[in-house]
Design brief:
homodimer, about 400 residues, alpha/beta, Aspartate Aminotransferase, domain 2, seven-stranded mixed sheet, four-stranded antiparallel sheet, 13 helices
Chain lengths: ~400, ~400
């Protein structure tokens, strides 16, 4: 059957593909899935929080009542009742979000890709936090921007620091609530200042918010979307409050932009599964998340506290870490001379994994940082793992 | 809450976004979904073929047995047992396809996007059939190639016609089986000739095959993939043999390319829903498609024959059309002076819809062509609609 002169292609990739790199985190995850490893490396939510029975019942209901619609091609912008639910959930007394502003996406990673596609030309300046979310850096990098790293501190991004780099930039990407990787949040006064600064510079502000609902105190931060709905692009996800494996997120943007994002999505994958959207709507439409999210908060708050206690007990002086009030991550800063990439080698040999901080920097990396996730590890294993890590760090100091 | 100087952004889109256009077909579909319209415009499979009960049972089984795995993040390349099933289904006595060559995608539209991302630079030459699949033109256009249109006739693409444009081109995109939009198939001798010509020019050959299983005689064409697995990129889909709304397709490529496509997918949407992949595997693993596909073929063959009979009875002399032996479409060529865009206005006023041919051409369009789909319309309505269309065409001649 095969032709006689069958020779493998000598591939010529596009310039954007030639520079693509695998996520370092995904590479680490392959190593750390062995059960004997105590892994603080994952960014996965705890499967104990997945509402399997509710999902099963909803699949049954939707397929029984509307099987042929749910399994047919659907609209690119999404399932209308779910878009309406999202618009309502984001509207406040002073700021109404319209369902037409909502575009459903295949996870919020797809929203990052679509935003990059529609706003970034080669060489466009894109402002990101220092450090920033790795998945966003990866998604935007495909379109070959120049990243400008914006200063951050314990109150999050420093709005004044964007003045110098905002002129001519295409967008600012921020993750203001319980940031990945640092666990930090942007203070409320800074939110207003940031929104105002961006508006003054005609700079689109991307507010990525996968963790906002996971505030341990149960009081979510105000959204920048509601402070300037004509200038903020908001991204949300069902991954952390329901389940990530269904791949369902959304982006909310002013109409001129959301229509472009919709065109980009049409070319990228036509639409996100109707069935998935109908099932999620079926699960959440009667207030399920209001009962469910507090159980996730309680679980994560408990494990976060266990890790903070263990860090205080086991890590040597000279090491500092963030104290998150929500979300899934703690960020650790070691003395300057310790390279956490090298520490990881020692650590894996001792059956403990984490993610070194360097990949989270768009420009110059602080190689003495690392990210710890506590959500999939029991308090006992957290104490055990942090003790091992503390000894390794002490030995290097 | 809103800031005082809230002003809407003046948007500056990327060059690729500034040129994006909505699919003309999707625009037509919005008009033609009114129940009184006899629509031959859709590219949707018939919902009568969706195995709703089997899907429902499989969701229940997978969520019961492996709910927490199915709902968690999963690998970018896909669910291993499904990739293995696909590799087996594409392997022949002389040509083994490895599971590692299979990348699961969010519908085969995503495979088009990823291929464009990884192989096309601005200005790259991309060879396409005349006419070609609109969704592919849309997906590739995002990356701003120069399309070279390759000649076709009733035996499909004319391999000799690529010689002049193959040198320096990045890829050739072909839909060899029951093509969308023409319903034509590439003859077997031409398949070998095309594969050889592409291999000689080191030109990646994309074999898009959503309809191959829908051969009315039940004898699928040989795949070009198996003639030169080192040079052919094969795309498949569950949309036409199972259900499109779940958005599940796949691309099979030589390892150096499939690894790049996987990196591009990681940045684009991390992975395709595990649950969907596990459910599809659950449905098909024991030979379901071998029993199911013949029922789709029989339904479509019957409706295709009804349309061919109606065309012969109702369309005036001077009009010609293809006689597909599979798939979902018939392609009609009217006398040169009739513009099918204008015909559509008349036709919709008479409650009949079709898709004008012009959008399917990458370069100069033949404006006297149109596409008819018969798969979602009953034989009675097919006869009624074709009679109305025949009268309108006769009046213009």
């Amino acid at each position: 059957m095969e032709i006689e002169n069958a020779v493998p292609i000598t591939w010529r990739f596009s310039q954007r593909a030639a520079q693509m790199q695998s996520s370092f985190i995904r590479e680490i995850l392959k190593i750390t899935q062995r059960p004997e490893i105590i892994s603080f490396a994952g960014g996965l939510p705890s499967p104990d929080t997945f509402p399997v029975e509710q999902m099963k019942a909803a699949f049954d209901t939707v397929l029984t009542n509307s099987g042929k619609v749910a399994l047919q091609y659907g609209p690119t912008d999404g399932f209308p009742p779910l878009r309406e639910w999202i618009a309502n959930s984001l509207s406040t007394a002073g700021c109404t979000i319209a369902p037409e502003q909502v575009l459903m996406t295949s996870g919020s990673q797809q929203a990052l890709d679509l935003i990059g596609k529609v706003l970034i030309d080669e060489g466009s300046r894109v402002l990101v936090e220092t450090p920033s979310y790795l998945g966003a850096l990866q998604a935007f990098s495909v379109y070959r921007p120049q990243f400008a790293s914006v200063a951050t501190d314990d109150d999050g991004l420093v709005p004044g620091s964007i003045e110098k780099v905002a002129i001519g930039a295409r967008m600012l990407y921020a993750l203001p609530n319980f940031q990945n990787p640092t666990g930090r949040s942007l203070s409320i006064p800074r939110r207003r200042e940031l929104v105002e600064t961006c508006a003054r510079h005609n700079l689109p502000l991307i507010e990525d918010d996968p963790y906002g609902a996971l505030s341990y105190k149960g009081e979510p931060f105000p959204k920048m979307l509601n402070m300037n709905p004509g200038g903020v692009i908001y991204m949300g996800s069902f991954s952390k409050v329901l389940t990530p494996g269904i791949r369902l997120g959304y982006v909310v943007a002013p109409l001129p932009l959301v229509r472009r994002l919709e065109l980009a999505k049409q070319a990228a994958d036509l639409h996100t599964a109707q069935l998935t959207q109908m099932v999620v709507h079926e699960v959440i439409k009667d207030g399920f998340l209001e009962r469910h999210i507090p159980t996730i908060r309680a679980l994560y708050a408990n494990q976060c506290q266990a890790m903070l206690d263990a860090l205080a007990a086991c890590f040597p002086a000279g090491v500092s870490w963030t104290k998150p009030e929500g979300g899934m991550f703690i960020w650790v800063t070691l003395p300057k001379h310790i390279d956490t990439m090298k520490l990881l080698d020692h650590s894996i040999a001792e059956r403990v994994a984490f993610v070194p901080g360097a990949p989270f920097y768009a420009n110059e990396a602080e190689t003495n940082t690392l990210r710890l996730s506590f959500v999939t590890v029991s308090p006992e294993r957290i104490r055990e793992g942090i003790a091992i890590l503390g000894k390794l760090i002490a030995a290097l100091m």
